Amino acid sequence: MFIAARPLPADICDLLPCPPPPQAFVISFTSDFIPRLVYQYMYSPDGSMHGFVNHTLSYFNVSHFQERTKPLDPLHLGYQVDLCRYKDYREPSWSQTPYEISKEYWAVLAARLAFVIVFQNVVMLMSAVVDWLIPDIPKDISMQIHKEKVLLVELFMKEEQGKLQVLDIMSEHRNGKDAWSKCSPRPRLRPRLRPGIGLAPTPQNPTPH
């Protein structure tokens, strides 16, 4: 004899892939997809990706190093280094606000957030269209479920009608018994005689002489 356990329903979150917002944030903030688009359509002189790497690097003056962070050997490369490059969107050292966040940073950040919103709305719209085109329950099964509901409602109505008929019959029977008890004559009670006391003889009519 084999005993099979009923399979437990799995959580819907375990079956579905990662929801749209985390995917949009991963694509937008952990890759160069958005910075490349921003550079190509806003800062590139010819609409190509030529010069993209140079655009993402900022300038730093090595003379601005703190005392304990300066290179031990400034001539390690064989020549004096005055400027170095690092990946960030900041103002150069010769600007009025050195090393502050540049306007390119805010442009890229706005593009990243816009991409998240657009990506989420597009995914939700496509999900709604797919749900509308492909229903969760097939049409024949939904019709069968509808018929079962109609049959259950009819059965319930029949049961309620049967209960009402039984109640009507019981009330009519009770009303008929009460009417019969009111119309039937009451039995006369015979007087009880006390011991030692007799009934007075009734006078008889004298016979005519």
Automatic annotation (TrEMBL):
- Any idea where this protein resides? Membrane
Please give the chief subcellular localization of this protein.
membrane
A GO molecular function held by the record: intracellularly calcium-gated chloride channel activity
Keywords per UniProt: Membrane, Transmembrane, Transmembrane helix
Specify where the region named Disordered lies, as residue ranges.
Answer: 176-209
Q: Which residues form the Anoctamin transmembrane domain?
A: 24-147
Q: How does it sit in the membrane?
A: Multi-pass membrane protein
Which GO terms of the cellular component aspect does the record hold? plasma membrane
Please give the Pfam families that the UniProt record associates with this protein: Anoctamin
Protein family (similarity comment): Belongs to the anoctamin family.
What is the name listed in the Swiss-Prot or TrEMBL entry for this protein? Anoctamin
What organism does this protein naturally occur in?
Synaphobranchus kaupii (Kaup's arrowtooth eel)
Lineage, broadest ranks: Eukaryota, Metazoa, Chordata, Craniata, Vertebrata
